[in-house]
Amino acid sequence: MTPTTIELDLIRIAWALGLAAVAIGLSLWQQLGLAGTLALATLRTVVQLFAVGIFLSIVFTLRSPGLILLVLLVMITVAALTARNRIGKDIPGLLLWLWGAILTSTALTIAYTMTVVVRPELWYEPRYLIPLTGMVLGNALTAASLTGERLVSALRNNRTEIETHLSLGATPGAAIATYRREAIKAGLIPTVNSMMVVGLVTLPGMITGQILGGADPLNAALYQMLIMFMLAFATLTTAILVAYGIKQQFFNQAMQLIDPK
């Protein structure tokens, strides 16, 4: 007998809101000062997910490649803006570089996955393209933010050491090699940690969603493998590109360390 998906209606979601209400109540009881933040986050979750659900229903119905690509470009732009805000708004040219880095890593990952692995009848099949891109973008955003924050902080806090290396004849790349390496490793920590414990400690969104939707657990596990491999490539590529872009911003043509803010 094929399992059927339990549909969630508005009444069930209203009951689910009880969990958020209890969390807000606990915050008030413990005087954590988080009640307002939790209430706003809950409201935004409801509004944003209702909006995206309605919008994606339209996109899936129309199946227009132009509209789908527009949605993806908007998602990439929002990811780049968010990463820029976390790293620092005072670095000129950073937003454009982040946009290009996230676009490049996401495009390479999705192009390979759609043409070599999944191979749907239509390359722009929204049922595959939009969810896969969304998962890649979320993790690329995290990698970009962590790498950028770590490297910018290191370049600003270790000027004397870097300038000493430069004065001894080191190239900018050699002078910041240690900081660059540590920043890239920091950007990959969430992805690597997830890969280490996936299936043992956590059941991520892809496998959970497919199982809840009635899919065969083994096939869901295979899809989750695909996701983890995609994320490993995308996050590493993003981190490398972001680190390179920040290095370009912090050194002038005379190979001198500058603060571009």
From TrEMBL:
Bilayer topology term: Multi-pass membrane protein
Localization terms from the record: Membrane
UniProtKB keywords: Membrane, Transmembrane, Transmembrane helix
Gene Ontology cellular-component terms listed: plasma membrane
UniProt-listed InterPro entries: UPF0014_fam
UniProt key word Transport: no
Family of this protein: Belongs to the UPF0014 family.
Protein's name in the database: Iron export ABC transporter permease subunit FetB
Annotated organism of origin: Leptolyngbya cf. ectocarpi LEGE 11479
Gene that encodes the chain: fetB
